[in-house]
């Protein structure tokens, strides 16, 4: 291994040691009870709640997937996605957070999302709990695989090691860390990792812009590529028979710019709808120590998100100016952040910056694994199969679940050519359509009943698969991001089924009114 690579490895090893130290520090408290392990005893402060929510949400795709889209297709696809996410973040913190914090405590002191839905409608047979837990297991396994792909690409690119071996090594690290520390360790380290992520992004974009000749030089280069620097157009890389971008006279070849019309823009902006159903974010709303502190958290979160997303998009534009032919496929384009860091920064500093990718990956994957484990252990095992299971038994089942989910995620992540952005977009749509509409109606429409909740959840989740696999491949006007039609379909089902079936009981309606009045004091 070269001296530079050794310095990078040292920096990243020190970082990982710090993360493990945080897990060990919180291990004793995390293992006191399942509530402490899965929700931290509702003790998060506003800074930790905000930063950990966004760090766990953004994952490695912020530093690899989003810059990769900008490098490959140009501004429009990445920018409209970023705008949708920023708007969704703000509305979610503004509209959902306080009501959910209040309602989750009122509804049986719920500590997981499936438990909240089940308690909200006071179901006896736990149908909602089972459905939501199964969807969480499915989509978070897919989500976790995207994080493992990030680990594999990162370490194999940096050290020239086999992708599969590096991906499995990353999976083992995240697994051990999650088992040891639980929710508090995850949230505390996510706070630190959110800082590392934004510092890494800003550092790389500033250094890269300077190396490319300044801001105006980067923009001039981008405008010279058809459709690359447009909000209503998209670049079309020309590919050879092997699927690699053509290069002529040391310059990448692009075809005629594609159009980015109204339907495509609305479809891309729909990414923002995903936030209303994102368990790793919603749990932070439930876990904050005081409802009043959510206002501060909202401001912190939106500032972090706007800065991070804007810089991540521009890194892709800078990368195309500096290294126009270095990354010849959409999958390879997701290494643009690594390419800029390792080529432009001293090895020791580059290692610290690379820790930003590792930070994003860890902060997301531990959240995904923990929530998925809680769904099976707390909601299915204790909630349905063995209701007299004590906390120790629940914790044991959760750790076995972590092992199984990690193994399945490794199998999904075995393909080195996987595109992180594509994997994340499917899982994001799954959560957004399965839980988002029901979360909004549960919190804000008193007429929502148990039958409508079941119909909306099943309809939204299944429509994601149907639209993705059957409708979207038809192309043309049907090429709409599956989250949008699935979200709307779920909303329609909730309203229609709730209206044609019996209204909620008087007790449920009284509880709804009590929670609503709690926000008017």
What secondary-structure arrangement, pairings included, does this model have?
Layout: H1 3-30, H2 34-39, H3 46-58, H4 65-73, H5 75-106, H6 113-120, H7 127-159, H8 163-211, H9 215-223, E1 233-234, E2 247-248, E3 251-252, E4 258-259, H10 262-269, H11 279-287, H12 294-322, H13 330-333, H14 336-344, H15 347-385, H16 391-412, H17 420-444, H18 450-471, H19 483-500, H20 506-518
Antiparallel strand pairs: 1-4, 2-3
Helix pairs in contact: 1-8, 1-15, 3-8, 3-11, 3-12, 3-15, 4-5, 4-12, 5-11, 5-12, 5-20, 6-7, 7-8, 7-15, 7-16, 7-17, 7-18, 8-12, 8-14, 8-15, 8-16, 9-12, 12-14, 14-15, 15-16, 17-18, 17-19, 18-19
Structural commentary:
The protein has 20 helices and four strands. The protein has one domain: Sodium/glucose cotransporter. A two-stranded antiparallel ribbon has the order 1-4. It has a two-stranded antiparallel ribbon with strand order 2-3. The model has no long low-confidence stretch (mean pLDDT 86). It is globular and about 75 Å long. Strand 2 and strand 3 form a beta hairpin. With 521 residues, it is mainly alpha-helical. It is 74% helix and 2% strand.
């Amino acid at each position: 291994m070269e001296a530079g690579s050794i310095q990078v490895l040292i920096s990243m090893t020190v970082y990982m040691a710090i993360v493990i130290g945080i897990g060990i520090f919180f291990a004793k408290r995390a293992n006191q009870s399942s509530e402490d392990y899965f929700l931290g005893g509702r003790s998060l402060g506003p800074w930790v709640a905000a930063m950990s929510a966004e760090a766990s949400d953004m994952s490695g795709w912020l530093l690899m997937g989003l810059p990769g889209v900008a490098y490959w297709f140009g501004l429009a696809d990445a920018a409209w996605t970023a705008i949708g996410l920023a708007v969704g973040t703000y509305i979610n913190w503004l509209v959902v957070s306080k009501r959910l914090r209040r309602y989750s405590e009122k509804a049986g002191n719920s500590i997981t999302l499936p438990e909240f839905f089940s308690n909200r409608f006071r179901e006896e047979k736990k149908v909602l709990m089972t459905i939501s837990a199964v969807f969480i297991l499915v989509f978070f396994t897919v989500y976790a695989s995207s994080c493992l792909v990030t680990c594999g690409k990162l370490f194999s690119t940096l050290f020239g090691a086999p992708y599969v071996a590096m991906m499995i090594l990353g999976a083992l690290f995240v697994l051990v860390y999650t088992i040891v520390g639980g929710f508090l360790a995850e949230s505390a380290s996510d706070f630190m990792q959110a800082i590392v992520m934004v510092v890494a992004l800003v550092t790389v974009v500033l250094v890269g812009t300077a190396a490319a000749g300044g801001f105006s030089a980067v923009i001039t280069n981008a405008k010279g590529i058809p459709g690359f620097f447009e909000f209503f157009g998209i670049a079309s890389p020309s590919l050879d028979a092997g699927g690699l971008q053509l290069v002529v006279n040391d310059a990448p070849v692009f075809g005629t710019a594609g159009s980015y019309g109204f339907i495509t823009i609305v479809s891309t902006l729909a990414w923002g709808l995903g936030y209303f159903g994102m368990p790793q974010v919603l749990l932070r709303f439930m876990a904050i120590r005081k409802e009043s502190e959510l206002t501060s958290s909202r401001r912190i979160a939106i500032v972090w998100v706007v800065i991070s997303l804007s810089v991540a998009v521009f890194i892709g534009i800078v990368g195309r100016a500096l290294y126009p032919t270095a990354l010849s496929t959409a999958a390879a384009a997701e290494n643009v952040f690594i390419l800029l860091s390792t080529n432009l920064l001293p090895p020791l500093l580059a290692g610290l910056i690379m820790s930003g990718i590792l930070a994003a990956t860890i902060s997301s994957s531990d959240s995904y694994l923990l929530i998925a484990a809680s769904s099976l252990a707390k909601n299915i095992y204790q909630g349905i199969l063995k209701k007299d299971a004590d906390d120790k038994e629940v914790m044991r089942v959760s750790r076995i679940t972590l092992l199984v989910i990690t193994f399945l995620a490794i199998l999904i992540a075995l393909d080195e050519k996987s595109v992180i952005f594509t994997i994340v977009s499917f899982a994001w749509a799954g959560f957004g359509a399965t839980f988002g509409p029901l979360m909004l109606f549960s919190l804000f429409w008193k007429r929502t009943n148990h039958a409508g909740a079941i119909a909306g959840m099943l309809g939204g989740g299944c429509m994601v698969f149907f639209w993705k696999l059957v409708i979207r491949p038809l192309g043309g006007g049907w090429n709409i991001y599956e989250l949008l039609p699935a979200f709307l379909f779920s909303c329609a089902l909730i309203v229609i089924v709730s209206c044609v079936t019996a209204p909620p009981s008087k007790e449920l309606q009284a509880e709804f009114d009590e929670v609503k009045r709690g926000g008017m004091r």
